[in-house]
Amino acid sequence: MASIINLDECTYNTIIKGFLNANNVVKALDYLDSMRSQGFAADATTASLFLGFLTYPNVIDADKALLQKYVLDSDDYTANVILMLLTDPNVSDADKALLQKYFLGRQG
């Protein structure tokens, strides 16, 4: 007998976090699309996961570009501003660390 798993926002965020931790941006974005198609909105936790991913040390430029395009195509103005600042080479590391601390809850 097959079991049916009902996914909620928390479950989607956990799955997305797992794919991001494995540097699989494409699959994480697939689950974000699935989450939205099931009627769930991406919340602050979801945004934090994707924006935090950009600060991982081993993220390749292609994944950053893909995520940047995806987020910039969304309606989330705050996420767009933070994303642009985190990926701007003219923003100092100290300022990026402050963004991480206050918006992503990460000490860096």
TrEMBL record:
PROSITE patterns the UniProt entry points to: PPR (PS51375)
Residue windows of the PPR repeats: 8-42
Pfam families: PPR_2 (PF13041)
Keyword Repeat: yes
Matching InterPro entries: PPR_rpt, TPR-like_helical_dom_sf
Keywords linked to the UniProt accession: Repeat
Record-given protein name: Pentatricopeptide repeat-containing protein
Organism: Saponaria officinalis (Common soapwort)
Taxonomy of the source species: Eukaryota, Viridiplantae, Streptophyta, Embryophyta, Tracheophyta
